[in-house]
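User: Can you predict the 3D structure for this chain?
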Amino acid sequence: MPDCVVPAESLMRQTRRLLGVLDARAKKSLGQHFLVDSGVLRKIVTAAELSTHDTVVEVGPGLGVLTGELARNAGNVIAVELDDTLALMLQNAFSECDNVRVLHDDILKCSPSDFLAQDGGCYKVVANLPYYITSAVIRHFLESECQPEIMVLMLQKEVARVITARPGEMSLLSVAVQLYGEPRLVCSVPAGSFYPTPKVDSAVLRITVHNKPLISLSSVPGFFRLARAAFCANRKQLPNSLAQGLNKPKEELFPLLEAAGIEPRRRAETLSMAEWVRLWSAFNDRGEL
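Assistant: Here is the predicted structure, written as structure tokens:
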């Protein structure tokens, strides 16, 4: 393993040294905050449950600290870095590591299947995500035809709370993620675990992707038209929000709710994923979407 990614010194000191060598600073435009807590680093790797048979896609490897840990525990690592300077540094640092590929690219502009062709298509995702692209990256992988087995993500703590919400506090984001997998909070991460220090705390989230989707891929666009409509009017009862969001007479919606076994006084945030699937089936069976 290249010397520049071996954590023989504290991660804070290592981060500052590498940035000094590169004559670089964390870029606010890319939401760069480098993890400097070795304990959290270990928790990320443990949560990914890696073996030498695994291929890992790392989004935003930054200075390569997590990349090195992944390379020691996984069979193959594909690190996708957008930053020009960091991508070049990583390519040089890992040039002698046979199980690491560094791609200089925007993860949102490339399909997972494009760079996984030689790895058989099975993979896991590990990422310390910039806050501003969190939802987009999650959707990018979960909506792909080549889905990961699991995702272990560092993201804003409040976003992790929203994603892991249970019925009573559900949102469009929690429904969107839980349609594809089961999210679980691994640990909270204080702002001081990063350099430079962000203004909010973070969390490590694990999403275990369903072996079989709750609905068919062809049904996803219609399902989300329904879900967006249900959440369009904050805390209104379902007949009112659906009537507004779908531009349908409220009277037409009561039989559909009854067919799904959902009481009309319910609100969107109270539905379980099983109820969402039943509601979609009721609308889909009658050609309403």
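The first strand starts at residue 34 and ends at 35. Residues 1-8 have pLDDT under 50 and may be disordered.
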